[in-house]
Amino acid sequence: xxxxxxxxxxxxxxxxxxxxxxxxxxxxxxxxxxxxxxxxxxxxxxxxxxxxxxxxxxxxxxxxxxxxxxxxxxxxxxxxxxxxxxxxxxxxxxxxxxxxxxxxxxxxxxxxxxxxxxxxxxxxxxxxxxxxxxxxxxxxxxxxxxxxxxxxxxxxxx
Length: 158
What we know:
The chain is mainly alpha-helical and about 160 residues long. It has helices at about 15-25, 35-55, 60-65, 70-85, 95-105, 110-120, 125-140, 145-155, and strands spanning about 5, 30.
């Protein structure tokens, strides 16, 4: 296990260095990333979109990455566009990387957001997909697929 750590402004930090050193001594490992926003957005691309689409389709990851691959890809692309509009230097092939990561997961995997949504519990839908949509609106980036999935889930929960 390794933990990625960084500062929001990309500057070196003695505190980050100390945490990475402590993780190393504990046998866990860690890496000081020069641009933590790349890691944050790459994770959000995977977690938020698979969670929301999984909740909407009430289906596991294997179904999403095969039968709903077009919708999933569009959600990844919209998330990428929002991140880039906010200056995040994602890798040029981030969508392909994220699809490959999804392809490597177990067919029956589901996300915590999907499980919470299905159980009628409070969930991260607004904090994840809602936030990406709001950031898109602020940057003038259209997110039609994210909008549709979000609004369908909010409408269903009402």
